[in-house]
Automatic annotation (TrEMBL):
Top-level taxon of origin: Bacteria
Lineage: Bacteria, Bacillati, Actinomycetota, Actinomycetes, Streptosporangiales
Basic and acidic residues compositional bias, start-end: 91-101
Start and end residues of each stretch annotated as Disordered: 1-23, 91-111
Origin species: Nonomuraea rosea
Protein name stated in the entry: Uncharacterized protein
Length: 111
């Protein structure tokens, strides 16, 4: 199987996210083998995905499809997902909103 060429994209956080959002490199997602999305974060912002033995986080890129970050082993990618989900939860709390519960954070998968 040929390796996919990736064009890294560094995405700056939105103005209201700049204090809390972790900085990650987001790359265009190019479908490969069978994609499995097993978890979606609050507001549907991030998706926990696996493909061909690799784990990663997806987010919508609007008309450009999807972007991914954190591709790698389970623990590495899970740490990225948790950092993003916790930052997003913090944004809701700072605005006085009640975030949707995230079972990855609630069920202790962070440990």
């Amino acid at each position: 199987m040929a390796a996919r060429a990736r064009q890294p994209v560094t995405v700056e956080p939105k103005q209201d996210e700049q204090e809390s959002a972790p900085a990650f490199v987001w790359e265009p997602y190019t479908p490969g083998s069978v994609l499995r999305v097993s978890h979606t974060s609050c507001c549907g912002l991030y998706e926990w995905a696996a493909e061909g033995g690799q784990f990663f986080v997806l987010r919508s890129a609007g008309d450009r499809g999807y972007e991914e970050t954190g591709r790698g082993r389970y623990r590495q990618a899970l740490d990225v997902y948790i950092a993003l989900a916790e930052a997003h939860r913090g944004e809701h709390l700072r605005r006085g909103e009640r975030p949707d519960p995230d079972t990855f954070l609630l069920n202790g998968r962070r440990g």
